[in-house]
Amino acid sequence: MDATLNTYDLDFTGVFDGTTNSPPSLAESSEAQRKEVIGEASKLKETGYCINILRRATNVAPLATGARHSILCIDDEEQVLEILTRRLSRDGYDVRTASDRQTILAELQKLPPPHLLLLDVGLPGFSGFALLHKLRQHPRFASLPVIMLTGHVNPEDVLHGMINGADGYISKPVRFDALADAIKTVLGIQ
To answer: Rounded to an integer, what is the distance from CA 5 to the centroid of its chain?
Structure first.
């Protein structure tokens, strides 16, 4: 393991015990971010996602020949995780899931790290926004592509996700054609 990783909170305890630095506030967002989110948030429920907010991640890990992209789905609803696993596996992805603190920590520490994270906002005992903020501060996960997959779709929530570094924001209930397009957009798959 890289020596620099040992100096960071690899178990993300700060996220779970409330000692992490505060995520950026909505007041810190730019006027352009606010306009983009407010303009697109109204379309969110209609289309299932905001294509203007989805963006290709800048540092997607390259795939070895014959390998498949891996996706870590973090959600507190087991039924949602089962549905995502079936659908994403059928679409050709390796899928890992986590729904509680211990499993999330274990999955984040596994090597190799996932190529993409699908992250719910409402998790037991902590916020997906807080976890996203912590990931963006960590050298191993700072550029990990993250799509928020959540029922929290008001403009403030979308803006909160985007200023914390989400690469996309998709509403629940999920439309699988929208999710498939979002994953391809963020990972740069064509």
So the answer is: 21
Neighbouring-strand partners of residue 148: 119, 169
First-to-last alpha carbon distance for the chain, in angstroms, is: 33
DSSP letter at 190? Answer: -
Secondary element (H or E) of residue 4: none
Task: Confirm if 146 and 115 have CB atoms less than 8 A apart.
Answer: no
Helix ranges restricted to H, the chain: 13-17, 31-47, 78-90, 101-109, 128-137, 155-163, 176-187
pLDDT 10s digits, 52-80 = 456 677 777 778 888 899 999 999 999 99
Q: Domain locations in the chain?
A: 46-60+68-187
To which residue do tokens 């659908």 refer? 87
Q: What is the rounded CA–CA span in Å between residue 158 and residue 150? A: 10
3-state SS, residue 20 = coil
- CATH class of domain segment(s) 46-60+68-187: alpha beta
Q: pLDDT tens across 97-133, in order?
A: 999 989 999 999 998 899 999 999 999 888 999 999 9
Q: Is 100:124 a contact under the CB 8 Å cutoff?
A: yes
* Residue for token pair 């620099």: 4
